[in-house]
Request: fold
Amino acid sequence: MAQNEVKVCKIFSFDSAHQLVNHKGKCANVHGHTYKLEVNLKAEPILSEGSTDEGFVIDFSDLKAIVKEEVINEFDHAFIAQGNEPSYETIKNSGSKVCLLGFRTTVENMATYICWKLAKRNLPVHSVKLWETPTGWAEVLYEDIPEKGPLFLTKMSGAFNE
Ligand SMILES: Nc1nc2c(c(=O)[nH]1)N=C([C@H](O)[C@H](O)COP(=O)(O)OP(=O)(O)OP(=O)(O)O)CN2
Ligand SMILES: [Zn+2]
Reply:
C-alpha cells in the first residue's frame, strides 16, 4: 500500500432474480439472490483542515449515494438479464423490472461490471467483492480490469462497445 493511503469499505445489499442459460445445474432455473456488495476504496485521507471531509477517504454517505445511483437502483428487485433467457420477453412485457446487461450474470461478471462502473464515477476504487450467496463470492481488483473495460463488455456490440 502506498504511504498514507487507507482502504475503506462500505457494504450494501440488493435483491435480484436471474437465470444462467446453459447452466448444467439448478441455476438454469429463474431464481433469486440477496447479493451482498463490498465496495473498497483506497486513497489518502483528505487533509484540508476544517473541511467536512477532513480525515476521510470519502464520506460514506457520498459513497452510498453513488452506489445507490449506479448499482442499487438498477439491480434491486429486478430480473438481471443477459437477454437470452427464455422468459426475458415475458417478464419484460409483464411490466416487471428488468435490467438488461447483455452478459451472463455470473457473480464474476457482476462484480467486474460494478467495479468498472464505480471507477468510471471517479471513485478511487480498489476492489469490489460481491457475495451471491452466504457461501459464494467473487472479488475483482480495479487494477485487473483492462483500461478499455472488461472483456465481456468490449466483446459485445451495442451500448457498451464504446
Ligand atoms: N463460479 C460461479 N459458479 C456459479 C455461479 C457463479 O456466478 N459463479 N452461480 C451459480 C448460481 O447462480 C447459484 O444460484 C449459486 O449456486 P450455489 O453457490 O451452488 O448455490 P447454493 O444455494 O446451492 O449454495 P450452497 O451454499 O452450496 O447451498 C452457480 N455456480
Ligand atoms: Zn444464481
User: Anything to note?
Assistant: The chain has one domain: 6-154. The chain has four helices and six strands. The domain at 6-154 is CATH 3.30.479.10 (Tetrahydropterin Synthase; Chain A).
